[in-house]
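hey m, so remember when u said the tokens were messed up on ur end? i reran from scratch. heres the input so u can diff it against urs
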Amino acid sequence: LEQAGWEVLTKVLTTAGGQELEDFRKRHGVGADGALDWKTFVEMKATGRGPAPSIEMSTTEFERAKKEGMGFMLALVSGLETGEKLEVRLIFDPANRVSCKPTHGMRFYALDEAPAAVVSFDEGGTEVGSP
């Protein structure tokens, strides 16, 4: 699911801004899965079914999100399983704009209520909405 989600996210972000999303998923300690020009950091969470109502970030990811503010984006990719509605929800500055509570890292909840740009796809994988 993670690789499929990454491919969808890369398509959405490249289409939206013309920049390429650099993949940091194999780098440890960055606090993000990727970045656009080292200016906007991106943490992706992918699910096979509908959008997750809550997610957990590691301490490193949360610290990066707090430090970067609007330069940090939480990307929720959902609907990756066959028959589900494919959607990408982009939440900027989640450390300050989403309800959260400490766990082993930080648990973000009520994600469907957070301000977000949402990109949806039809059954053929064609983008039908944009931020």
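this time it looks ok to me. The longest helix spans residues 2-17. if urs says something different then somethings off w ur setup not the seq
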